[in-house]
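Fold this sequence, please.
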Amino acid sequence: MNKHSKPLVNLIRGWPSTSLLPISQIAAAAQAVLSEPSIAYPGLLYGPDEGHEPLRREIAKWLTDFYEPAKPINYERICITGGASQNLGSMLQVFTDPTYTRNIWIVVPAYFLAFRIFEDNGFAGKMRAVPEDEDGIDINYLEREMKKSDDEAEKGGMMKPTLKSNRKTYRHIIYCVPTFANPSSRTMPLGRRRDLVRCARKFDAL
C-alpha cells in the first residue's frame, strides 16, 4: 500500500465505522444513570433477568411505531442480552436438550462463530447445512431433511427429553438470518418467512 492508497477495510470482523460510534451520547447516558441510585444500584448488581424495564418498554414502542403491526408489541416479550452470541447460547441452554433435539439446521453460508456456540451446547456432529436460493432458505429441502431426521430419531427411541424434561424443549433448531443474512446479505420476502414459520410449527422447531 503506497502513501496515496486508502486504508484497507477489514471485512473479517463485523465492526461498524468508528464514525458511527456514539461516544458522547453513551458518556452522557452513563453519567445520568450513575447519578440516579434507583437505576444505578440495580444496574451495577444483577438487575432483572429480562433487562431494564423502561428500556424494554421503549424498544417495544419503537418496534410498534416503526413496523405498525396489527397489535402493539408487548414489552414483556422483549429480553435484553449482551448481543447475538450470548442470546444464542442462552436460547440453546433453555430450549434444547442434546439427547432429544435432533439437529441444528443452518443456512449456508453462515456466521462462523455460531458453530462453536452450538458445539459448546452439545451439538457437535448434529449440525446440518440447508441451501439458499435467491429468496433465502430452501423450505422444501428443509422439510424433507427434517422428516428424515424425525424418522431416524423415532427408530432410535429419542421420543422425549432426558436432561431438561421440566421445560419446553424443541425437536429441531433452525439457524438463519432473515434480514440481510450474514454473510450472503439476502433478505427473505414475506412469503418465504411465512413458509418458514409454518415449517417450524409443523416440525416443532425453534
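The CA atoms of residues 135 and 190 lie 10 Å apart. The two ends are 47 Å apart (CA to CA).
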